[in-house]
Fold DNA repair protein.
Amino acid sequence: MKKQVFDFYQILEQDAKKNTEIFSLYFPENYHFLEMDEDTRTDFIAENPQMNRALLIAIGMGFQLAKESRPVLLSARHSSLVGAFAQEKLGDLKQEQLFLALLNTQLDVIGWEVVFVGTLTEVSASPREIFQRALKANAYAIIIAHNHPSGNLRPSVQDKRFTKRLYDVGQELNLPLLDAFIVSKDGYWSMQEKGQLWEHLLDE
């Protein structure tokens, strides 16, 4: 937190070094801000009333935002769990839809969003839109899933091409695509399980 406090004062054109040192006197490393007493709060604010009050408000808002983090929908550590979840959500749909799963650093699914409805092409399903959503949600990684209303689980050439494009962009952005699923009412196909997500994705 020390760096963020330093940056706070620096951005507001305060003496960042001096004010950060004062902050550290009142709030040493591993200080529990939720246990702050009124005397400590009052004394700290008195050192630089306008700026220190604003800093404590910002810290409080940070704790509030942390409480409002996205709920965990399921663990993505095992592809079978994600495949079953995607099959339940998409298997019976009559029109092809692409869904984006957003993952945190523990590989939990914290978001499940429809990206588009229609035939899967790079024109209708933009990699840019997918990664914009993931970056906005501060996701660690992503998984995609779409359904084949025909019941055929094998990926088409278009499916493979689009998945490879997402995989390559994810590597460049350090926001990896961990798997791509195709589902029907009878089952699912995982490109990670089938070894199609990395090399020779277009060769099969």
Notes: The beta strands are 74-75, 97-103, 108-117, 141-147, 177-184, 187-190.
